[in-house]
């Protein structure tokens, strides 16, 4: 097939130059695993390449058997013409149709296989080579059926295909499990994804499918972004013009910044309509809208801008202009001056930092590979393969969350089946308290003991879960025994586990039985005692009018107890009286001695005392 125009040749040269000029171009084929479970000589796991059409079951698996048609082996014609059907009968395995590569587009093979009733299509390569990605055809070969292909597709190697065909020819039933659970990384509770797109709305069905996807996916994307479940980044592919062509008419009309950033002419006609450089500027404006919106903590406004611009400013109506774009920006409350500053001068002979970053991002890093197909969706640094459809893409995004961290939208019936609804997923369950260890995730259920009202349950999640720690008794009594009789309630629940309370015996979990203290002679055993067992306790009385003292497990006379009590009180009374009299006597004695000493001291000042001896005459004079 030849090139359609010099513009197409130039685009190819530009793209080749871009790949050679930026590090080393590397396209990564995205794969899933194919596990053969029978026959024995084919058992094992094989790699296959995910087709870039249909709906891969990201995060899930499919089980079926492989069929190889006796006629129409390349599936380029309708199987109805050969009276062949692969529609599954009730209770039977789905059919994975194996066909040969060649003679028609991969998508045509998939469409014919789907119409024949196949659940998936496996295309066997016709040459020994590394796996490639099966893509949709160019615009000239596209057809309406492309958007209606829903079955997953995969390319397998020639050698593996030959082995499958041989087994089928020998009459073996080849059972296969297609597994997409690890096709996308799912490391944490947030999914990071990129959408490589284009503002050009005149490039045919691919451009139409891009804008249709943006319109349909906008609501879900904005909800996921606002709630912090995802981190989205839009990107735009540009090329640079080889130095030898910078002054050519083609480069001048398709590039800005002196050939540094280029896009194909929308109509492939350089003499009419909009030019490739107009597309580059609008692409740049959309990147800047996202950057400014993100700086204002509203990155989701990109979806509104792109949708409104496509509706209000189409090329067909000659509104693909800055004036129309500014009107959309103003209606969304964005700062158009900041956006214009971000865009810079398209005529300047200098690099534009925003578009330079976009070109750098096109080159693959790690496991992602180069972005060479438009549109391209990259989820958790892995390129998405399949139909650009809201349901299919949402399913792929959901596959990027770590188990049990998915948002509610991923667990809806439209996206996946809730395995906990059938037999509780085989997990532990407390029906009385409506507590279960079954957690529905996008990849299937997991059995994990729950946390309820701040109380953590521990166990294997399958057969056993038990509340632990403080507060455990508030949840179903901690799973311990509890019973109420005659208005009295006893519980075996403690912070440390299940232990029967005093007066009961048992395991504390399933059963606690009353201890008959009377029968087991553990209480009320004195000679005069009369024992009566009660639930959880006992009652003890005494014969002959005696009084029972529980702490001593004995009976005493009520009269004796009274006389003893009064005697004790009299002893205390007289003791207190005696102490008072003694205290008063001591007080009087000490006061009297103190007063005597004071009087003697005063008298000694005015007259000699008998025991004082002679006092000199000059000591004191008293005049009468």
TrEMBL record:
CDD domains: EGF_CA (cd00054), PA_VSR (cd02125). Residues 1-25 form the signal peptide. Gene3D superfamilies: 3.50.30.30, Laminin. SMART domains: EGF_CA. GO terms for biological process: protein targeting to vacuole. Belongs to the VSR (BP-80) family. It is a single-pass type I membrane protein. The chain crosses the membrane at residues 565-587. It is found in: Cytoplasmic vesicle, Clathrin-coated vesicle membrane; Golgi apparatus membrane; Prevacuolar compartment membrane. This is EGF-like calcium-binding domain-containing protein. It comes from Urochloa decumbens. Residues 514-556 form the EGF-like calcium-binding domain. Keywords: Calcium, Cytoplasmic vesicle, Disulfide bond, EGF-like domain, Glycoprotein, Golgi apparatus, Membrane, Protein transport, Repeat, Signal, Transmembrane, Transmembrane helix, Transport. GO terms for cellular component: clathrin-coated vesicle membrane; Golgi membrane.
């Amino acid at each position: 097939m030849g090139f359609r125009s010099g513009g197409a040749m130039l685009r190819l040269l530009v793209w080749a130059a871009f790949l050679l000029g930026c590090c080393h171009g590397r396209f990564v084929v995205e794969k899933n695993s194919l596990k053969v479970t029978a026959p024995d000589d084919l058992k094992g796991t094989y790699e296959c390449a995910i087709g870039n059409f249909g709906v891969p079951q990201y995060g899930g698996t499919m089980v079926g058997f492989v069929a190889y048609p006796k006629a129409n082996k390349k599936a380029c014609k309708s199987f109805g013409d050969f009276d062949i059907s692969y529609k599954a009968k009730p209770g039977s395995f789905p059919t994975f149709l194996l066909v040969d590569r060649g003679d028609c587009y991969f998508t045509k093979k998939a469409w014919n296989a789907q119409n024949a009733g196949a659940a998936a299509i496996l295309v066997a390569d016709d040459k020994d080579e590394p796996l490639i990605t099966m893509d949709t055809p160019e615009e000239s070969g596209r057809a309406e059926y492309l958007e209606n292909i829903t079955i997953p597709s995969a390319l397998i190697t020639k050698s593996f295909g030959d082995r499958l065909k041989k087994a089928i020819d020998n009459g073996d039933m080849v059972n296969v499990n297609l597994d997409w659970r690890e096709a996308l990384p799912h490391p944490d509770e947030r999914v990071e994804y990129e959408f490589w797109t284009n503002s050009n709305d005149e490039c045919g069905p691919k451009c139409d499918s891009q804008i249709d996807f943006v319109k349909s996916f906008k609501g879900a994307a904005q909800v996921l972004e606002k709630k912090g479940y995802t981190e989205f980044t839009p990107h735009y592919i540009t090329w640079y013009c080889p130095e030898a062509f910078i002054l050519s008419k083609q480069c001048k009309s398709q590039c800005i910044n002196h050939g540094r950033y280029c896009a194909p002419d929308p109509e492939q006609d350089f003499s009419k309509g909009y030019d490739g450089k107009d597309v580059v500027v609008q692409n740049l404006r959309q990147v800047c809208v996202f950057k400014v919106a993100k700086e204002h903590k509203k990155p989701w406004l990109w979806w509104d801008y792109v949708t409104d611009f496509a509706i209000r400013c189409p090329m067909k109506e000659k509104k693909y202009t800055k004036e129309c774009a500014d009107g959309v920006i103003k209606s969304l409350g964005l700062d158009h001056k900041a956006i214009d500053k971000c865009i810079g001068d398209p005529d300047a002979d200098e690099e534009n930092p925003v578009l330079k970053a976009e070109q750098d991002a096109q080159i693959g890093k790690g496991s992602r590979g180069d972005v060479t197909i438009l549109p391209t969706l990259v989820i958790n640094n892995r390129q998405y393969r399949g139909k650009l459809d809201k349901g299919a893409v949402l399913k792929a995004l959901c596959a990027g969350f770590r188990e049990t961290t998915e948002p509610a939208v991923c667990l809806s019936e439209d996206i996946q089946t809730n395995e906990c609804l059938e037999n509780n997923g085989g997990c532990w369950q407390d029906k009385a308290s409506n507590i279960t260890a079954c957690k529905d995730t996008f990849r299937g259920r997991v059995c994990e003991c729950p946390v309820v009202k701040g109380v953590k349950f521990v166990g294997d999640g399958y057969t056993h879960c038990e509340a632990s720690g403080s507060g455990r008794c508030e949840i179903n009594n901690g799973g311990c025994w509890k019973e109420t009789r005659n208005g009295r309630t006893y519980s075996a629940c403690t912070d440390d586990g299940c232990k029967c309370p005093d007066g009961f015996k048992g395991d504390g979990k399933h059963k606690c039985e009353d201890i008959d203290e009377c029968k087991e002679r553990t209480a009320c055993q004195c000679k005069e005692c009369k024992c009566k067992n009660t639930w959880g306790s006992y009652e003890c009385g005494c014969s002959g009018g005696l009084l029972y003292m529980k702490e001593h497990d004995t009976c005493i006379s009520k009269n004796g107890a009274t006389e003893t009590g009064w005697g004790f009180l009299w002893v205390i009374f007289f003791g207190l009286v005696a102490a008072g009299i003694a205290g008063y006597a001591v007080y009087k004695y000490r006061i009297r001695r103190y007063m005597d000493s004071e009087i003697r001291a005063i008298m000694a000042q005015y007259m000699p005392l008998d025991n004082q001896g002679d006092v000199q005459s000059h000591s004191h004079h008293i005049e009468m």
